[in-house]
Amino acid sequence: MYHHRVRYALLALSLLCWPGVADAQRTPPPLSEMAKEPFKVFDNLYFLGTGEVASYVISTSDGLILLDTLYGGPYTGYLIENMRKMGLDIADVKYVLIMQGHWDHYGGARELQDQHTKALFGAAEEDWKMIEADLGNQAPRRDFVIEEGDSLTLGDTTINFEITPGHTPGTTSMRFAVFDNGTRHEAYFHGGAAVRSRDAGVIRTFIADLERIGMIPDIEVQITNHFDTAATGAPDLFGRAERLARRKPGEPHPWVAPDDFHAWIDETVANTRELLADAQ
Hints:
Layout: H1 11-14, H2 31-34, E1 39-42, E2 45-47, E3 56-60, E4 63-67, H3 74-85, E5 93-97, H4 103-106, H5 109-115, E6 120-124, H6 125-135, E7 144-146, E8 151-154, E9 157-163, E10 172-180, E11 183-189, H7 200-214, E12 219-223, H8 237-246, H9 258-279
Parallel strand pairs: 4-5, 5-6, 6-7, 11-12
Antiparallel strand pairs: 1-2, 2-3, 3-4, 8-9, 9-10, 10-11
């Protein structure tokens, strides 16, 4: 797993996950080491993932939206059980969104389709291609393709999509509202928070996207799909979870931290500019 706080000099190791390069990790880490208790992040958002990679459910007035599917295999039952612990039913999932074309995010998709849910599955075109190239006739069914500027509305919830290439060619990011005891906050979920290419054009696009994201008004909450996507000095996903568990009435929600979000944007832009200088 790429650690987002290390220097981008380690990028060469991560290129194993770029399209056209064989995925070196086809056996998931042991569930006994990765299992985490699920928890409610906001009124309408639940963490269901592992110690390394996240999966979430957004609850709406008309069903559930599942974000990413973990590795598959034993992790599929783990994901469903984590939903059950949170009072959520896989049968109520209406949409499954695959945020990037790396195995730890889509590995459980086909089994979920075949055995557990009638939900519609979506990903960006370029990442559908990655998934299909990897899995061949075992790839999950395409139900829809997410494009730049698309939105998805289910019940009282609307998700606005952006295609933010760099981590994968079709990395999908999204803006949506979360609620803390009924108070609305604007959240941003970047689907692939570190560039994985030495192509200067790809790197420039990634930087420009981050700078644009940093200009979006009113973003207060950063949702991440790996535990360590955070600015230096800011708590990671599980650090925030510990604060949330200890939170007293009237204290601020630990995920509502716009300064941390913008610090992460600025730090990632600076690190990626160093990578661009090396690539030119």
